[in-house]
Every structure is written in structure tokens, then in C-alpha cells.
TrEMBL record:
The gene is LOC109080687. Signal peptide: none annotated. Residues 154-499 form the Myotubularin phosphatase domain. It comes from Cyprinus carpio. InterPro entries: MTMR12-like_C, Myotubularin, Myotubularin-like_Pase_dom, PH-like_dom_sf, Prot-tyrosine_phosphatase-like. One of its GO terms (cellular component) is sarcomere. This is Myotubularin-related protein 12. Gene3D superfamilies: Pleckstrin-homology domain (PH domain)/Phosphotyrosine-binding domain (PTB). Substrate binds at residues 251-252. GO terms for biological process: phosphatidylinositol dephosphorylation. Keywords: Cytoplasm, Sarcoplasmic reticulum.
């Protein structure tokens, strides 16, 4: 019997054989026989068939393959009983033994296994362990191992000092919360900007401030907070605008419900499911509300940027927890304002600063432990990545990283190896990581961060993280003066949100309200006028920005019109063969563009070599320019590249008979289409 190649620290729990893994081809019951294993890291299927000729994959994950499911990536498990599908929860297989197991993954893969050929006890063990394990994290990294780290982690005074130098911020570092005496849900180090407490720096004078209401409301905190307001506002309290995101954006439960509806359209088990969903595609997407939530977050970020950029006004954003939508909006605002955060290292540092050091509750929000309490579950970080993807999609030359990088990052959230996404706060991380490791006797646990991409990919695969169309900033480039534009008439507005935020419930609600009353600062929505005014002024601000000279290293704003907000196709459609475009899609466009880019670089190299004085400059080109991707031309690539290589279902769009009848497609119409296609073929 074959066994999986275990990673260091990985332990095999049980197995079941023979298991039939379906190929998801129109309920044809075709598949591959093999063995299903469950370890403390993954569920893995190993085929009994002899492997075909191995083709070296350009983009291969070292930790798990196409037949592996990290336990943290398991979303739902269903058992099929007499053709009826039932959800299996809590590791319990009630009463009857299921003949089939269906696994829906958080990265939207779908696996179907027939259990009828294996021993009942073996199959039950696999099902129970797969659905019942509480995220058994693999601590396979010993304390002595050192990981190469170039990303600024914001876990030391030196990192914050480096950021202050980069942004030329007039700040000094304080350590009042170094031992989490003020709050266990906030930064270890705090920045004092001219005697004020601040957690978001900006190269401009205007600043985005976020407040976490879970601060212990002590006299120390109030002392710092009022000094912050007075210093930032230069003793003009009303120059600080406030926005309570709990009132102006959907809450985390709304976000969770919307995404649950949205993701169902991409968890395709067979061709019939695909064509059924395709019939009502647009209406289904609209009813989920997911794209509208993305639009709302981007619009709110633009409103904040407008205050900072246009009105030179400081913005204070608040919410009950202060670590969810505050992270989303403040991060998006910084990406729009600061080109450094559009580089790969800059973006990773931003995530570290705003999300990891900022104590976003990854463990609860991502439901890594598969808890039944749904109150705390919400894909807030995925929502942020969705918004970033919209910016990358609309302004590709402004970003050094690619959409493949964002897709891999969204997958890595559910890989239980990295310390980045495993904890709820810095305090939680420290208390766990300082504990003695059960595997390494030498000391505390040591896990790599997700930013050490060599753990998952080799250097060749990491080339896909870089955008070859990124426009490098030319040194000594003269600053473009921003022309003054008169205000446009406010006759355009974006669709208003369909979400109505219910009254917020929580222990800190009263404290938050008291804090806002004490501040006596103006709310952003009141300052901007009527409820429809933000949309109108945002449109106005965007149109004014559009008339400026194009500068990918300056201010960057998204278009928020309905058709401009797209589906993240690579992430959501990569596992659905029916939408593959053989030899086409973005990979084909990128290949041609890179061929042209390579030719241009060759010509530049020839011209530079003609001048000996310029030859020495060849070695000083930006690193990313050498990262031209090389696609495997030996195989037929599809639009799902570099993720899906194998196609299990036919590319031919065959609508099932039952669906044709339900759509009232007559035989005569079908025959007419056949005749038309035959004529085309003849011609």
C-alpha cells in the first residue's frame, strides 16, 4: 500500500482503501481508485494507478498538491445517503453510513469520494477525523531554524523607527503597552506623534486614525487619546473628521452571509450544476450582494482619501472592535495614497502593520477551529484582498505584485503552518509561541511567517508573484504639479447600499458612544452633507483625479461604477473546466506582452552596450525586471494557468437534457443550431 510523503512533524492518523475519487463528469460515476489518508495536517488521496509521465509543473506548492486538502482548508463535509446529501458536523456520522463523501474547500475546490468499496470502520475514521479535528497545526519548525525575512514585521521598536524614517513622521516610540498593560488587543509598541497616540503613519500631514474600543478605558488611555487629538488637530478639534464604520458599512455578520451566498456559485460538483447556475448567473451574483460590499468598502476608502488629499483634513475611523473594517479601510486608503504599499514588500509590511500587529482576529474570523458559533466568523481579510484585486485589475502598471500573488495569499490563510494567520492578537501569538513545543525539546515554538514564500514555492514559481507590466518609478522624475479643477455639478451618484446595519450589540457599545460624545468632533457623514452626498462628492473627486496627468506612483483611485467592479476570476473560476479557455485568457495576453517586453529590454541592452559609459548600469536594474515568466509551451495552457493543469470534465458545453426541457428548448431549435454549426464547419 502506498503512503504519502510526510512533512517533518506530520503524523498519519488513519487511512481507507479502496476509495473511488470521482472525476466530476456529469454524474458518470467515473473516477480513480486509491487510498484516502488523514494526517495532522491534511487529507490526501493517493491513486493506485501508475503515474503517467511526469511533467514538471512551473507552479507547484511544496506543502500540498492537487490531491491534498489542508485540514484548515476544509469548509464543509457532506455525506450522501440514498441520493440525499446531508451536512456532517462535529466529526459524527449519525446512524447510517454514507456511501459518498463530498468535501467543499475554502479555496473553492470540490472533492467527491465513493466509500462503498472500503471497510465501513476505516471510512468512518477518515470522515470523523476530517470533520472533527480542531486545526491540528503542524509545528514542524524547530527553534534553531532561522527564516529569511525581508518584510518589515512591526514587532520591534526598530521596525517602527524604520517606518517613521521612511514616512518622515514626527513621532517618538513609547512602550506603555509593551507588556499588554493597556490592552491585549492592540499594538505592542505605540507611536507618539508630537505627544499623541497614533497607529497609522502617512507621508502627508493628514493622518488616518483608528480607535479600538476594546482598550481598557483608563485615565492613562484618555490622557494619551486627548493628547493625540489635540496634537494632530493642532488644537483645532473640528479639523478631525470621524466615521463610525459600524453605522456606515455592513457588519461582519452581513459580510459572512453575503459571502456564503456568493461562494456557492463556484462550488461546482458536476457539469449539470454549472449549467444550472449559468442560466441565472447575473441575478444570482446581484442577489448575493458581495460585489456591492466590495464597492461600499472602496467608496468609503475613497471618502477617507478625499479628506486627506483634497481637504487636508485628518480622519478618525472607529468601530466596536476596531480590528475588522478599520483594518480594511485604513489599509485601502494607504494603498491609494502611498505607492510603497503597491510594491510586494510594501504590501506585505502593510498587512503586518494593520492586520497582524493591529490584532485582527484571524483565528475567529477565518474559523480555523471549525467552531459552531457563527457570530465571530467573517471573511474580512478576504474582503480586503478582493478590494485590492479591484485596484490591481483597474491599474495594473501601478502594482509590483500580480493577481496570482493575491490568489496564493488568500489560499495561504488556510494553511496551518504559518504564524501570520493563526492567532487573534499579538498577545495570543506570544502566549502560544512562548509555550514549550511538544516536538522540539530545545525551546519555544518557531513557525515561519507566510512571507517566507520559499516554504511553499521555489524561486521559479515565485516569479509569478511579480507583475511584469509594473511601471517602475523613474528616478529624478520631476513632480507633476496638480492642476486646479473647478468643482463639478453634483448630478451623479453611485447606487446606495442595500444593507441596513442592525443596532450594534456589545459590551463596549456604551463606552464607544461616550467616547464619541466626549470628543465632540464632527462625523464624516454629517460634515459631507446629506446621505447621498458622499457618493456624489466621491464621484466628483474621482472625475477631478481622472483629469490629472497619469501618474501610477501618485494618488490612485478606483472606478466604482457597477460594470467596473469585476469578479476575481482567477480565484473563483480556476477549478471550473467549463470556463477554461484553451490557449487563451489572461495567460495568452500576458505571454504576448512579456514577449514584447523582452524584445524591448533586448533592444535597450544593445543600445546601452554601444556606450561603454552606460554598460555598468546594466547590473543596477530593478530586481523585478529580471523576473520574466517562462510558460511551458509544450502543453496547452488554459485561462486557469498557473493553478489548474488537469481537466476532468469535457470542454464541450453540453447542456443536460433535463435542463434543456426546463428551459423549453425545442428539438427544432437544437437541430437548427446543429445545421448552422455544420455550415460553418463546411465553410
Amino acid at each position: 500500500e502506498k503512503h504519502p510523503d510526510l512533512l517533518p512533524g506530520e503524523v498519519e492518523f488513519c487511512s481507507a482503501n479502496p476509495i473511488l475519487k470521482y472525476t466530476q463528469d456529469d454524474l458518470s460515476q467515473r473516477g480513480v481508485f486509491g487510498t484516502l489518508f488523514c494526517t495532522n495536517f491534511r487529507v490526501t488521496f493517493i491513486s493506485d494507478e501508475k503515474p503517467q509521465e511526469k511533467t514538471d509543473k512551473t507552479f507547484k506548492n511544496k506543502l500540498y498538491g492537487e490531491n491534498d486538502i489542508p485540514l484548515m482548508c476544509v469548509d464543509h463535509i457532506y455525506g450522501v445517503y440514498d441520493e440525499k446529501r446531508k451536512l456532517i458536523t462535529g466529526g459524527l456520522v449519525k446512524n447510517k453510513y454514507p456511501s459518498k463523501m463530498i468535501i467543499h474547500c475554502k479555496d473553492l475546490r470540490v472533492f467527491q469520494f465513493s466509500l462503498t468499496f472500503s471497510k465501513e470502520e476505516d471510512a468512518k475514521k477518515v470522515i470523523c477525523l476530517t470533520s472533527g479535528i480542531k486545526c491540528l497545526c503542524m509545528y514542524f519548525v524547530s527553534a534553531e531554524m532561522q527564516w529569511k525575512q525581508e518584510t518589515v514585521m512591526f514587532d520591534s521598536p526598530e521596525d517602527w523607527t524604520q517606518e517613521m524614517k521612511r514616512t518622515k513622521a514626527n513621532c517618538r516610540l513609547v512602550t506603555e503597552n509593551e507588556n499588554f498593560e493597556l490592552s491585549q488587543r492592540y499594538f505592542l509598541q505605540l507611536l507618539l506623534a508630537v505627544e499623541c497616540l497614533i497607529n497609522v503613519t502617512n507621508p502627508k500631514l493628514s493622518i488616518v486614525l483608528t480607535v479600538n474600543s476594546t482598550f481598557t478605558l483608563t485615565s492613562i488611555f484618555f490622557s494619551f487619546f486627548f493628547r493625540m487629538i489635540n496634537a494632530v488637530a493642532h488644537n483645532h478639534l473640528y479639523s478631525v473628521k470621524t466615521e463610525d464604520l459600524s453605522e456606515s458599512l455592513p457588519n461582519i455578520q452581513d459580510i459572512q452571509q453575503s459571502y456564503n451566498k456568493f461562494k456557492q456559485f463556484f462550488l461546482i460538483e458536476n457539469s449539470t450544476d454549472f449549467w444550472l447556475s449559468d442560466v441565472k448567473w447575473f441575478s444570482s451574483l446581484e442577489s448575493s450582494g458581495w460585489l456591492d460590499i466590495i464597492r461600499q468598502c472602496l467608496q468609503k476608502a475613497v471618502e477617507v482619501v478625499e479628506c486627506l488629499e483634497k481637504d487636508n483634513t485628518n480622519v478618525l475611523i472607529t468601530e466596536e472592535e476596531g480590528t475588522d473594517l478599520c483594518c480594511v479601510i485604513s489599509s485601502l486608503a494607504q494603498i491609494m495614497l502611498d505607492p510603497y504599499y503597491r510594491t510586494l514588500m510594501g504590501f506585505q509590511s502593510l498587512v503586518q502593520k494593520e492586520w497582524v500587529a493591529g490584532c485582527h482576529a484571524f483565528l475567529d474570523r477565518c474559523n480555523h477551529l471549525h467552531q459552531k458559533d457563527k457570530e465571530y466568523h467573517s471573511p474580512v481579510f478576504l474582503l480586503f484582498l478582493e478590494c485590492v484585486w479591484q485596484l490591481v485589475h483597474q491599474h495594473s502598471p501601478a502594482f509590483q505584485f500580480s493577481e496570482t500573488y493575491l490568489t496564493v495569499l488568500s489560499d495561504s490563510v488556510h494553511v496551518p503552518v504559518f504564524s501570520t494567520f493563526l492567532f487573534n492578537s499579538s498577545h495570543h501569538r506570544e502566549s502560544v509561541m512562548k509555550a514549550e513545543s511538544p516536538l522540539a525539546q530545545s525551546g519555544p515554538l518557531s513557525c515561519p511567517t507566510v512571507w517566507d514564500w520559499s516554504v511553499q514555492f521555489d524561486s521559479k514559481a515565485q516569479n509569478f508573484f511579480f507583475n511584469p507590466l509594473y511601471l517602475e518609478k523613474v528616478k529624478h522624475d520631476r513632480a507633476v504639479r496638480k492642476p486646479h479643477k473647478p468643482k463639478h455639478q453634483r448630478n451623479l451618484s453611485l447606487p446606495s447600499s442595500a444593507f441596513k446595519t442592525p443596532p450594534k450589540k456589545g459590551f463596549f457599545k456604551d463606552e464607544t458612544d461616550s467616547l464619541k460624545k466626549m470628543l465632540r468632533v464632527k462625523r464624516l457623514s454629517r460634515w459631507r452633507g446629506s446621505p447621498d452626498a458622499p457618493a456624489a462628492t466621491t464621484r466628483e473627486f474621482f472625475e477631478s483625479w481622472q483629469h490629472r496627468p497619469l501618474d501610477y506612483h501618485g494618488l490612485l483611485l478606483p472606478c466604482l461604477d457597477g460594470p467596473a467592479v469585476h469578479i476575481w476570476m482567477q480565484r473563483y473560476l480556476r477549478w471550473i473546466p467549463e470556463v477554461y479557455i484553451l490557449g487563451g485568457g489572461s495567460v495568452a495576453v500576458m505571454t504576448k506582452l512579456m514577449e514584447l517586453l523582452s524584445q524591448v529590454q533586448d533592444l535597450k541592452r544593445v543600445l546601452e552596450q554601444r556606450d561603454s559609459s552606460q554598460a555598468a548600469k546594466l547590473d543596477h536594474r530593478p530586481y523585478f525586471q529580471h523576473r520574466l515568466l517562462s510558460f511551458d509551451s509544450s502543453g496547452r495552457l488554459s485561462s486557469s494557468f498557473p493553478f489548474a493543469y488537469t481537466c476532468y470534465r469535457s470542454f464541450k458545453p453540453i447542456i443536460p437534457t433535463g435542463l434543456m426541457q426546463s428551459l423549453m428548448v425545442t428539438d427544432s431549435l437544437a437541430s437548427q443550431e446543429d445545421e448552422a454549426s455544420s455550415v460553418v464547419s463546411f465553410v
